[in-house]
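Lab notes, practical 5.
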Amino acid sequence: MKALSKLFSLLSSLGPSLLLSNVDNVILDPPDIVIVNKSRNVMLTRFLVCKDVEYSVHDLSEESARGLIESYVALLNSLPAGVQLYLIKEELDIGKLLKRISNEILNIQADLESAQEESVRVKLSIKLDKLKTLYTSLLNGKPFTRVSLIVSYRVESENLDLAKSVANYYESIITNSFRNHYGLKLERATRDNILQFILSTIGISSRPSISKVDVETNKVSQFQPINIDKSPLLNNTIILGFEKESLHPIELRVEDLFRHLAIIGPTGRGKTTLLSSIIEQVVAENLANAIAIDFKGDLNAYITKDLITVLTPVNAPINILEKPPGLEDADWRSMVVESLALASGVSGEAILKALITVENEGEHGLVKYHYTSVLLPFIEFLKNKVNYNVLVDSLNKNVLINLEGHGTAFQNAYASLCIGFIRYLLLTNRSKLRTLLAIDDAWRILRLKTFSEIVREGRSRGLGVIISTQNPDDIPKDIAENVYNIVLFGSRNKEYLKKAEELTGIKEGDIAASILRLGIGEALFVNTLDKRVHVIKILLPASMRNKQQSTIQRPS
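Output from the prediction step:
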């Protein structure tokens, strides 16, 4: 209040002013400034500040540009007369951020020199490599810009209560208009917001400390949706990649991964590469417990050696005739029947009939009846000697289940049974798991009922799912409805483009146009909650980054 009084005294001293000479009292009552004149009439000015943005600008098609103009016209028509809009722009100095990253790099290098255990050295090396990549991208990338959006309007009345009542009515109209037409979330300004704005307006302050939204420099314009591009959080996040134009890092918090992530694209575009990079970051930085299922051995080839325990059906065998301890008979049988039915394409009834026969008559039943032949692709599961402790213990740690070299039916059955075990752990563990289940070539098991249950219930129990698959329509509707983060690689297939638009919920044409322009290692990241869209160059796993760097440095 003292600051505001001093300001008015200063203005009065500049020269005679009819307006100021008629002012009897000035009250700062956030979000309002109330001026009472000597006739006891009230003039109230209310301030609203943009706190959040719910979407982004992506490459505008003709259709979406028309929608943008229509939204602007609708916004103007819905606002009361006298509303004033202010955009305050400043560039964000990333020097402090770079210094912080540099210090962290030095600390990790020191830890690396003193570390004795190989597993610790591997994790530190991966984290160090990631920070160096981030530092280089920020150093070479485009500057960040901060934008403050302030909305003010004035109400005149004979008394303060009536003025505030009218101001509240206008506030509801204005906040709804900005949210509905532009996705901008306005909130009441604080005392500090108001003072900083006034000081900035008259030139006393050049860097007002008002709520800001970080955006790319080239996307700040007079009034269009603002593309959030926040400076890196560094802690408890993984980097998906770097925005193609600005080189700004695109991060996901670990908590966002519990809302699930789908990575979609044709062979050779970079799906498995990105999945490997995510797993590496999660394990190296101890962000969560990671369980990866690898059908072809590609994840095992890309992920840095000694970072994660590799499990195979040889060292963790399963016998479908022997129930794991702690599991009910009915639950185990249901798990086995569903897994074998999915893997073989045979009905659950046929699998169950054959299974009961073999349980009762042993190997003799397997050769005696023709209908038991449905179990022949799974003969290993009938003969294995098991110790389920190996598998169950591994699922509580960082583990990669490598199914490379086995037949397709066996692979699908083993993976499905493992997913059944994970579902069992989800149900029996009372505390949050903080686990991520990552599956390459996930199209093989996406129709598994047990898997859809994990996706549906996992978020509340701290179990996130990351799936990699070739086509958007591989993902069943009940799973798609629960996946909030999507990475789409390039394709020219019309059906792929159509299904991608349906999956993301973005306007027709916008997603397709962007996907068509994507090269190898480039992808579209979409957050389906806030409709954020970024074109990114994916972050490679450490082994591929090192190989790429050595190729660049090798003399010709």
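Observations recorded by the TA: The mean pLDDT is 82. The longest strand covers residues 144-157.
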